[in-house]
Write a structure and sequence with these properties.
CATH architecture of the largest domain: 2-Layer Sandwich
Oligomer: single chain
Largest sheet: 6 strands, mixed
Strand order of the largest sheet: 10-9-6-7-8-11
CATH class of the largest domain: Alpha Beta
CATH topology of the largest domain: Nucleotidyltransferase, domain 5
Strand content: 15-25%
Distance between the termini: 46 Å
Structural class: alpha/beta
Length: about 350
């Protein structure tokens, strides 16, 4: 058996690869690169549309070759040649469809449907032996991998909430063995922003704090233009819609499944974002502040765990797959009212924490 394995997280924007020492669980080397499928669009919707327009196999070739090239670079970095390494890949539902060359027709229109992703369909050129499955079209293998990662943390059980901000604000609440998930459409608010999404959140929090915008998100006449701010009125509106959708989803999850003991912020945005800023703009409830922990790329972390301790990780994976319920926010009777409520900046009395 090889001493090393490869863990991969296929993000819409970037791909992260880690060469993992299977004995110690340590990362021996890491390689990140832009997802080469960006030539067909920067966002998931553009990629799905391109796949359905006849470019599926070209996008499959691009990502497969990218992973193979990255794997070879990692091999060379530690002097490993000619060995077939065990590889585990995580990614959102669309990215794994593109990697496997599966039809994306079901991801393009309602009722949304995802194909099953068997291990065998992954291109052998990527030396892949496994992919972490998705739960639904909107709750992908990257979220499942994140759950596998944080479930193994000392402060996680008996309950935690995982929040991953991106084009969708994906949330998963674990409560004594039951997993409840929701996905809130955040649009472009947390993507492709000057200085990064966390910097944009910080700037919006500053504007709220100094009173440069009113409760509705509108620049006050005496504060506009604010020469120190790069946020346009449109950008503020985008952030306002996104934060309200995410916050409404969080509230519904808590109402349905209970108050989490710990809140884990996943991904680059969560790692760089100040929790105080997230509270200031109303993205997360105030009482989350003292129990929120940034965990970085939890998707890659879950893939690494599946490599290093496959038996324990598989047991947790089975628990997730067998005890999962998804809340479709657009169909929830409370969503519209909560969405309108959390559009405002300030002026809303914080709700008390719920208990089990």
């Amino acid at each position: 058996m090889s001493k090393f394995g490869i863990a991969a997280d296929i993000g819409t924007t970037n791909v992260a690869l880690a060469l993992v020492d299977l004995a110690s669980g340590e990362i021996a080397a890491r390689h990140d690169f832009p997802n080469p499928q960006r030539a067909f669009g920067a966002d998931v919707i553009s990629r799905i549309n391109a796949a359905n327009a006849g470019h599926l196999h070209e996008m499959q070739r691009l990502i497969s070759c990218g992973i193979s090239a990255g794997t070879n670079e990692l091999r060379e970095s530690v002097g490993v040649r000619g060995e077939c390494m065990k590889t585990v890949i995580a990614g959102n539902t669309a990215m794994l469809h593109l990697l496997c060359g599966l039809s994306c027709e079901g991801l393009a229109k309602y009722p949304f449907r995802a194909e099953k992703i068997p291990f065998a369909c992954i291109p052998r050129s990527a030396n892949t032996t496994g992919a972490i499955p998705h739960l639904s079209p909107f709750i992908g293998g990257d979220v499942v991998a994140g759950l596998l990662y944080v479930m193994n943390m000392p402060d996680a059980l008996p309950s935690f909430l995982l929040l991953d901000l991106g084009t969708n604000g994906e949330t998963a609440l674990y409560n004594n063995g039951k997993i409840t998930t929701a996905s809130a459409a955040a649009g472009p608010a947390f993507e492709r922003t000057r200085g990064g999404a966390s910097a944009t959140i910080a700037e919006l929090a500053r504007l709220v704090r100094i009173g440069a915008i009113d409760e509705t998100g509108l620049y006050k006449s005496e504060s506009r233009p604010d020469e120190k701010s790069h946020l346009s009125q449109k950008k503020i509106r985008d952030l306002q819609l996104a934060k309200s959708a995410v916050r409404s989803g969080l509230e519904i999850l808590i109402e349905e499944s209970g108050e989490p003991r710990t809140v884990f912020l996943a991904g680059g945005i969560g790692e760089a974002m100040r929790v105080a800023d997230a509270v200031e703009i109303g993205l997360i409830p105030p009482h989350f502040a003292e129990k929120t922990v940034a965990v970085g790329n939890s998707s890659l972390g879950g893939a690494i765990r599946m490599l290093v301790e496959p038996a324990a990780a598989q047991k947790d994976l089975d628990e997730i797959l067998q005890n999962h319920a998804e809340i479709i926010l657009a169909e929830h009777p409370r969503f519209n009212d909560l969405f309108i409520k959390f559009l405002d900046f300030g002026g809303i009395a914080p709700e008390p924490p719920r208990t089990f």
